[in-house]
Amino acid sequence: MEQVPKVIYDGEVKPHSWCRWSVFRVKRRNNSVNVRFVGNTGSGKSFSALFFCEECARMMGKQFNKEDIYFSIKEVLDKVAKDNPPPGTIFFIDEQQIEAAASDYQSKRARAYSFFLSSVRSKRYIIVTTLPFADMELKKIRRFFQVEIETHGANFSTNTVNATPRYLEYSRQKKDKIYRKRLLVILKDKITNLYKAKKLTYWNIPKPSPKIIYIYEQMKEEFQTALYKKLSKELSEDELKDNVLPKASAEETTLATLTPYQRAIYDFMAEGMKSQKEINVKLLEMGFNSSPAKVSQNKKWMRKKGVIIVKR
Length: 312
Prior knowledge:
Number of domains: 2
């Protein structure tokens, strides 16, 4: 098993140790960090994730801004392919699981997303995403996240979000077994040189800056508006297919079951002929062995097959 994730302080313990662990992993361990925030709607996961990104950027002497916020994995792939961002670049992908629902699209997206997460280790990125529930993401993608932070709602007395962060370790021996580990904070006393250790169970996450909240809300509004239009168009196309195509298909399927004699009766009746004697004369002219009684009997058989005659 892997070692417990830890942060060591020489003296006073500093706030937001999970951000410090993530930055240390990128800068000193030459590794990437993949973090997912999960929680019910309104639990504060998006704002908490934004603060996480802002704080990590601040610790690296950078500024988290509009260019670091994405609403689809395609946008991230385009950015990496075009610009090859430097180590320490932060990607915030907000609720990307809702960008499309088609199974073929999801399959392609899952392949691209899993390849991206598995291949960017040497690039040393910090990738942060949000999901209502961890199992909404496919298993092949979930396994590439090292940290899961579950948000439980705001604490209005402290103006923070209550969260439980955990390091995720996946067992290679036991299928689907996940070990969730707390961050170990180690304090070295300057006077005694003794170490004291404490595991972090909870994290009270502050709000992000007003500036980044404003930028995020604007981008989310634009994304949702475009998504609603896209989904509305897809539903309209599906409804059109449901209302038109199946009816035509059902009619063709039913008519295909008719004998040549019955199909001739159908065509004459569709033209407006009602008299069995008149239809019988036309059938005799076409060379069929027919009689009014035979026409009547075949009309009954046609109705049993589901044929409905509509006068044109």
